[in-house]
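Worked example

This section walks through a single chain of length 104. The input is the sequence exactly as stored; nothing has been trimmed or padded.
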Amino acid sequence: MANPWAGEVALVIDGERRVAKLTLGALAELEDQLGAGSLADLVARFESDALKAVDVLALVAAGLRGGGWQGSVRDLMTAEIEGGVLEAARVAALLLARAFRVPG
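Given that input, the structure is written out below as C-alpha coordinates.
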Protein backbone atom coordinates (compact mmCIF):
# COMPACT_ATOMS: atom_id res chain seq x y z
CA MET A 1 0.00 0.00 0.00
CA ALA A 2 1.26 3.47 -0.87
CA ASN A 3 1.73 5.84 2.06
CA PRO A 4 0.67 9.36 0.99
CA TRP A 5 2.27 10.86 4.14
CA ALA A 6 5.62 9.54 2.89
CA GLY A 7 5.03 11.00 -0.58
CA GLU A 8 4.13 7.64 -2.13
CA VAL A 9 1.64 7.07 -4.96
CA ALA A 10 0.45 3.70 -6.29
CA LEU A 11 0.32 2.85 -9.99
CA VAL A 12 -0.50 -0.41 -11.78
CA ILE A 13 1.87 -1.21 -14.63
CA ASP A 14 1.45 -4.34 -16.74
CA GLY A 15 -0.91 -5.69 -14.09
CA GLU A 16 1.55 -5.20 -11.22
CA ARG A 17 0.95 -2.63 -8.50
CA ARG A 18 3.97 -0.40 -7.96
CA VAL A 19 4.76 2.34 -5.46
CA ALA A 20 6.27 5.57 -6.74
CA LYS A 21 8.01 8.28 -4.70
CA LEU A 22 10.06 11.31 -5.72
CA THR A 23 13.18 10.94 -3.63
CA LEU A 24 15.91 13.56 -3.82
CA GLY A 25 17.87 11.23 -6.12
CA ALA A 26 14.84 10.75 -8.36
CA LEU A 27 14.33 14.53 -8.55
CA ALA A 28 18.01 15.07 -9.41
CA GLU A 29 17.76 12.47 -12.16
CA LEU A 30 14.60 14.11 -13.49
CA GLU A 31 16.21 17.58 -13.48
CA ASP A 32 19.13 16.22 -15.46
CA GLN A 33 17.02 14.23 -17.91
CA LEU A 34 14.69 17.15 -18.66
CA GLY A 35 17.42 19.79 -18.63
CA ALA A 36 15.84 21.78 -15.79
CA GLY A 37 18.13 24.36 -14.22
CA SER A 38 16.58 24.07 -10.76
CA LEU A 39 13.76 22.46 -8.81
CA ALA A 40 11.70 25.61 -9.38
CA ASP A 41 12.26 25.29 -13.15
CA LEU A 42 11.24 21.65 -12.96
CA VAL A 43 7.99 22.41 -11.13
CA ALA A 44 7.26 25.34 -13.49
CA ARG A 45 7.65 23.00 -16.45
CA PHE A 46 4.93 20.75 -15.08
CA GLU A 47 2.66 23.69 -14.29
CA SER A 48 2.91 25.16 -17.78
CA ASP A 49 0.66 24.63 -20.79
CA ALA A 50 3.65 23.21 -22.70
CA LEU A 51 3.68 19.90 -20.79
CA LYS A 52 4.58 16.95 -23.02
CA ALA A 53 3.71 13.27 -22.72
CA VAL A 54 7.42 12.47 -22.43
CA ASP A 55 7.61 14.81 -19.42
CA VAL A 56 4.81 12.86 -17.71
CA LEU A 57 6.55 9.57 -18.50
CA ALA A 58 9.89 10.89 -17.21
CA LEU A 59 8.26 12.05 -13.96
CA VAL A 60 6.42 8.77 -13.45
CA ALA A 61 9.58 6.76 -14.25
CA ALA A 62 11.64 8.83 -11.79
CA GLY A 63 9.00 8.30 -9.11
CA LEU A 64 8.88 4.57 -9.78
CA ARG A 65 12.67 4.37 -9.52
CA GLY A 66 12.41 6.29 -6.24
CA GLY A 67 10.11 3.48 -5.15
CA GLY A 68 12.63 0.79 -6.13
CA TRP A 69 11.64 0.00 -9.73
CA GLN A 70 14.54 -0.74 -12.08
CA GLY A 71 12.87 0.29 -15.37
CA SER A 72 13.29 3.27 -17.66
CA VAL A 73 11.15 5.77 -19.57
CA ARG A 74 11.52 3.51 -22.60
CA ASP A 75 10.03 0.63 -20.58
CA LEU A 76 7.02 2.80 -19.70
CA MET A 77 6.50 3.70 -23.37
CA THR A 78 5.56 0.10 -24.09
CA ALA A 79 3.91 -0.73 -20.76
CA GLU A 80 0.21 -0.98 -20.07
CA ILE A 81 -0.59 1.66 -17.47
CA GLU A 82 -3.89 0.90 -15.79
CA GLY A 83 -6.09 3.94 -16.30
CA GLY A 84 -4.10 5.09 -19.31
CA VAL A 85 -2.99 8.64 -19.97
CA LEU A 86 -5.26 10.20 -17.38
CA GLU A 87 -3.99 7.94 -14.62
CA ALA A 88 -0.35 8.58 -15.57
CA ALA A 89 -0.99 12.34 -15.49
CA ARG A 90 -2.82 12.06 -12.15
CA VAL A 91 0.04 10.07 -10.63
CA ALA A 92 2.59 12.59 -11.96
CA ALA A 93 0.66 15.47 -10.39
CA LEU A 94 0.32 13.65 -7.06
CA LEU A 95 4.03 12.81 -7.02
CA LEU A 96 4.97 16.47 -7.44
CA ALA A 97 2.41 17.67 -4.92
CA ARG A 98 3.49 15.13 -2.32
CA ALA A 99 7.20 15.71 -2.88
CA PHE A 100 6.86 19.44 -2.18
CA ARG A 101 4.16 19.33 0.50
CA VAL A 102 5.08 21.01 3.74
CA PRO A 103 4.45 18.58 6.64
CA GLY A 104 1.86 19.51 9.20
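What to look for: The chain is about 55% helix and 10% strand.
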